Amino acid sequence: MECEYNLTRDAEREYLNLNPLQRGGILPEKTREALYDFGDGYSVCDYCAGRLDHISKPPINSFLDDLAEFIESDVVRTVHGAREGKYAVINKVCEPGDTVVIDSNAHYTTYLACERSGVNIIEVPSTDDSENKITMEQYRKTLEEAIDEVGEIKLALLTHVDGDYGNLTDAKEFGKICKNLGVASVLNCAYSMGRLPIKANEWDLDFVVGSGHKSMAASGPIGILGMKEEWEDSMLKKSPKFPKKEIEMLGCTSRGAPIVTLMASLPYVKERVANWDKEVKESRRFVKELESIDGITQIGINPTNHDLVRFDTPRLYEIGQKHSRKGFYLYEELKNRKITGIKRGQTEWFKCSTYGMTTDQRNYVIDSFKEIVEKLS
Ligand SMILES: *Cc1c(COP(=O)(O)O)cnc(C)c1O
């Protein structure tokens, strides 16, 4: 049977992909094999006795224990994404009309999860300089003021690493602040869990959420929801009518290829998390090299603590003003060099990541930018 859709993609085979969204979700070889075997719908359900998290073939039960240990959390469930994790927490902890405190670098899905749960939002502002940093002094201040103003705040959310600047926040201090003020805490680790170590209990966090397709080398869609033991009974309350099924999880969450690829990649992910320091060092080197081009500067915390980096690039914009292809030249010049992942037509700024690339690959990207600017200036 012929397929009428052209379903081919060579971005990871033929190109160096700089799109930060995609770098942490690339599957290692072994995981691709598991994807092939478990691509069929409900493929993990051959030996299910009614509870997804109890299935022992494939060993989802022991995998969840390993995952809990990996993020140092008491209890773990998979959900369909970081957003579904956040939504489940907000929906469970809060009532409609409650107010939640979040950082102003939060992902749009944090806002939508709040809107869907019918809760109001108070934002912790970031510094109004080029760093756009969320400081814990400011977080504490805003949270205290929110409690004074509203009376009770049940839940506070912090973005561990945001998707605009790649700013890493102080999770441990956040946990402490929330604990002291009697507010439940949720840390959004979409850009951190699977890249850098997460220590949910050491940081005293009530909830952590992660994203398998963002940062854990899984096909997804799949998210991770970790929680403290004390939340287990309410968060994972079972249905009176179907006593094996957890209500907030709607019975079964991620099944088939999304969870099997997450499982297959866990040993690989553990290994790369142990090498995070090296990634940060390489990311800083990459920034330094790009900043050596006049008219390119990194914004966000500098030196960076993450692989996602954002640049202001007036130099690239100026080149486009005079170029026959206008702003499209950059995308096209990069594509000719087998580099992809920077938005088409965009030259005033961009964000990118070289996460997981070899030194040679990173050097090639650096040299390509230098060459393009030199050639067209
Ligand atoms: C990508 C991203 C999300 C969304 O993750 P999903 O797993 O696709 O829901 C949420 N928060 C942040 C900070 C992100 O970068």
Question: Helices, strands, pairings?
Answer:
Elements: H1 11-14, E1 16-17, H2 20-23, H3 29-37, H4 60-70, E2 75-79, H5 82-93, E3 99-103, H6 108-117, E4 120-124, H7 136-150, E5 155-159, H8 171-181, E6 184-188, E7 207-211, H9 212-215, E8 223-227, H10 232-235, H11 257-274, H12 276-291, E9 297-299, E10 309-312, H13 314-322, H14 328-336, E11 339-340, E12 349-352, H15 359-376
Helix pairs in contact: 3-11, 4-11, 5-6, 7-8, 12-15
Can you walk through the features of this model?
- This protein is of the alpha/beta class.
- The longest helix has 18 residues, at 257-274.
- The protein has two domains: 11-18 and 275-376, Aspartate Aminotransferase, domain 1; 29-272, Aspartate Aminotransferase, domain 2, CATH 3.40.640.10.
- Helix content is 41%, strand content 13%.
- The model has no long low-confidence stretch (mean pLDDT 97).
- Pyridoxal-5'-phosphate is lined by residues 81-83, 107, 109, 159, 162-163, 188, 190-191, 211, 214, 223.
Write a short abstract of this structure:
By secondary structure, the protein is of the alpha/beta class. It has helices spanning 11-14, 20-23, 29-37, 60-70, 82-93, 108-117, 136-150, 171-181, 212-215, 232-235, 257-274, 276-291, 314-322, 328-336, 359-376; strands spanning 16-17, 75-79, 99-103, 120-124, 155-159, 184-188, 207-211, 223-227, 297-299, 309-312, 339-340, 349-352.
